[in-house]
Amino acid sequence: MWEPACKNRTRTLAGLAPLLASIQSPSPPSVVLRLDPSTRTQALCPHPATARGNPMSRIFITGSTDGLGLAAARTLISQGHDVVLHARSRQRAAAIADTSAAALSLVIGDLASAAETRSIADQVNAFGRMDAVIHNAGIYLERSRGETPEGHAKTLAVNVLAPYLLTAWITRPDRLIYLSSGMHRSGASTLDDIDWKRRPWNASQAYSESKLYIATLAALARHWPDALSNAVDPGWVPTKMGGAGAPDDLEMGHLTQTWLATSDEGAAKVSGGYWYHRQRREAAAEVGDVGFQEALVGRLAELTGVRLFAERG
Ligand SMILES: NC(=O)c1ccc[n+]([C@@H]2O[C@H](COP(=O)([O-])OP(=O)(O)OC[C@H]3O[C@@H](n4cnc5c(N)ncnc54)[C@H](OP(=O)(O)O)[C@@H]3O)[C@@H](O)[C@H]2O)c1
User: Fold this and answer.
1) In the chain, where are the structural domains located?
2) Is the separation of the CB atoms in 76 and 15 below 8 Å?
3) Are 210 and 159 in contact (CB under 8 A)?
4) Does residue 96 contact residue 11 with C-beta atoms inside 8 Å?
5) What is the distance in A from the centroid of ligand 1 to the CA of 39?
6) Catalytic residue among 140, 154, 164, 211
7) Does the active-site annotation cover 211?
8) Of 196, 213, 237, 294, which residue has the fewest beta carbons closer than 10 angstroms?
9) Model confidence band, residue 2 (pLDDT cutoffs 50, 70, 90)
10) Quick one: which H or E segment has residue 304?
């Protein structure tokens, strides 16, 4: 079982009972699992971040029930930050009850559904403005195109449309971080058929394209003067997605996101970067291509009915 750095932050099993009861209750999926502020672990333990003089941040992480999202959440919590976790369902939330107990809260919703994604944004906004949002959740090799409730390819919906919609709907934070992948370099540069309606299904190509689009979205968001926006390639790391044999380092795979989300170092307070293990890397040429950026954001607005940059017409 995971233990926060300060043992006093860990709630007792008795203290977890209300949380577990709310997870098991037949409440709708949009329920917010709010911890009782009077018993929150943060009150029991001095925050290492504040003790070091770093201000504590409030961070929302999508897909924090497993892999890199869960590792990032645990690191940020152990540093004393307020983390809002996210699970696709109450069952998945129950699997991380120990981490939830030390977090600010946990929101629930399936990112394959635009309606549930709207609910996730509403749940997050109920906590006030986040300092940072880490768009981490993702899926990899889907056996087929699938069909979301809105009729989209599932890989596109979870990996691109959901972070696009959350970017539009969550009150804009100071810092936005999007998980891309080195595979984005194999993403097609044409935006024809991004929803896989005409092409025969190719799971690896669909994933690569989705990671090109998300890196491009990160580059576009740098146009907001009040937000820092960056994309991260975590490397090929041993998670449920990466597989046990993945050669890269899980630690290095999540620490770039947590650093970009919270650090006061000048190097972390930049925008429009593409990062790998805390080093700036060149992204594929399309990511910085204004024509490609504009075409992509126009296509995503058509597919979702939501405009990200209203002021851009
Ligand atoms: N692992 C790698 O080698 C690697 C390499 C390059 C990029 N990345 C990127 O890094 C990010 C995290 O990957 P990971 O390796 O940590 O993956 P992971 O272990 O499979 O975890 C993915 C997370 O996203 C959640 N998620 C997936 N679909 C969802 C949905 N429809 N609604 C809500 N939540 C959903 C998962 O929830 P459940 O736990 O319920 O499934 C899980 O919490 C992804 O964006 C991925 O593309 C990973």
Assistant:
1) 61-306
2) no
3) yes
4) no
5) 31
6) 211
7) yes
8) 294
9) low
10) helix 290-304
Separation of 63 CA from ligand 1 center, angstroms?
A: 6
With a 6 Å cutoff on the Cβ, whether 93 touches ligand 1 is no
Residue 23's alpha-carbon distances to 20, 37, 96, 176, 293, in angstroms, are 5, 18, 11, 29, 40
Q: Is the CB of 242 under 6 A from ligand 1?
A: yes
For residues 1 and 265, the model is more confident at 265
> Bigger pLDDT: 36 or 274?
274
SS (H, E, C) 202-263: CHHHHHHHHHHHHHHHHHHHCCCCCCEEEEEECCCCCCCCCCCCCCCCHHHHHHHHHHHHHC
**Is ligand 1 within 6 A of the CB of residue 236?**
yes
> Cα(4)–Cα(298) distance, rounded to whole angstroms?
43
Residues 173 and 154 sit within 8 Å (Cβ to Cβ): no
Cα 207 to ligand 1 centroid, rounded to whole Å: 12
Q: What percent of the chain has pLDDT over 70?
A: 81
Decide whether any atom of ligand 1 lies within 6 Å of the 139 Cβ.
yes
Fold of 61-306: Rossmann fold (3.40.50)
- Residue 261: the pLDDT is 98
- Ligand 1: which of 30, 136, 214 to mutate, most ligand atoms within 8 Å of CB? 136
**C-alpha of residue 136 to centroid of ligand 1, in Å:** 7
- What are the pLDDT digits (tens) for 110-132? 999 999 999 999 999 999 999 99
Separation of CA 302 and ligand 1 centre (Å): 26
**pLDDT in the model for residue 310:** 66
- Confidence category of residue 309, pLDDT binned at 50, 70, 90: confident
Phi and psi angles of residue 303, each rounded to the nearest 5 degrees, phi first: -70, -30
Please identify which of the residues 207, 213, 274, 276 carries the catalytic annotation.
207
